Amino acid sequence: MKLSVVTTLYRSKPFLEVFLKEMTAAIKVLKIEAYELIFVNDGSPDDSLAYLLAQKEQYPQLKLIDLSRNFGHHYAIQAGLAHSKGEYVFLIDNDLETSPYVIVDYYKEMGKDSTLDVVYGYQETRKGNFIEKNAGSLFWHAINKLSDTKIPHNLLTERLMTRQYVDALLQLQDANLFMGGMWHWIGFNQKGLPVKKGVREGASTYSIKRRAELMLQAITSFTGKPLEWLFYFGITISFFSFLFILYLGIEKLIYQDEVQLGWTSIVAINVLILGVISTFLGIIGIYIYKIFRQVQGRPNSIVKKIYE
């Protein structure tokens, strides 16, 4: 098998007819005959799966992975990659924001440099309204500031990968997936190409809530720095509280009865206790975070049925 194309299904029915035509046409340009088209049904509530089942006669390369429920975009991607067999694996969203023909540029770029393991796409300029553009930029700046793994800004799903790279990616046992970080954490020789995204027909399935959840997932999966900050915050509060108590003690010694400690001293002591508790919680949190990353043993997705 020369090529595996992996994509996921969630409210995808409006795009599938055009996607199939353009994807197969792009593969013909590359003159690749041995390929498979893997669609992972991530609990899509529409009839995307039924539509593709009806297309199997026209497109015998179709391979449909039906998950038992909606696990999420990144988990469905992982399931698709795990069932791919191609020497090269092309990952793409089928909403047509990115043209399937980008595989032609990716494949040619790999042909120019045999050492490349991945060719991926990124946006030079983010599309969308003011909030979408700036929120996206803020996200990539934040994750790169917080994480030890440096991730290219405005990264796209679309990427062409070698089998060796995909196999290495699947070795990661992360239960909390953030593919953008995992793609670059494993290393290998990767090259980005600028891609201009189109405008999606209809509303995106990535709501503001889901985008916020993705950002939280990205931060908690790839950095423990917020916990470290909590620890240092506790240390700082404790230090200044101690100085404040010392100041009150010295003032009391100098001015004696003129200084009434009472309420002020109680506040200082309470703040000191808060600082100590925050420090200890930060330390405990760091260890719990490390344990949490190791002990989760549930599968990231469950396959209900495979249609080949």
Automatic annotation (TrEMBL):
Organism domain of life: Bacteria
Example of a GO cellular component annotation carried by this entry: plasma membrane
Localization in the cell: Membrane
Transmembrane feature ranges: 229-250, 262-289
Alphabetically ordered keywords of this record: Glycosyltransferase, Membrane, Transferase, Transmembrane, Transmembrane helix
Keyword Oxidoreductase: no
Residue ranges constituting the Glycosyltransferase 2-like domain according to the UniProt record: 4-167
Primary location: membrane
Entry's Gene Ontology molecular function annotations: glycosyltransferase activity
Listed CDD domains: DPM1_like_bac
The keyword Nucleus is assigned to this record: no
InterPro entries: Glyco_trans_2-like, Glycosyltransferase_2, Nucleotide-diphossugar_trans
Topology of this chain in the membrane: Multi-pass membrane protein
Name of this chain's protein: Glycosyl transferase
Organism: Flavobacterium suncheonense GH29-5 = DSM 17707
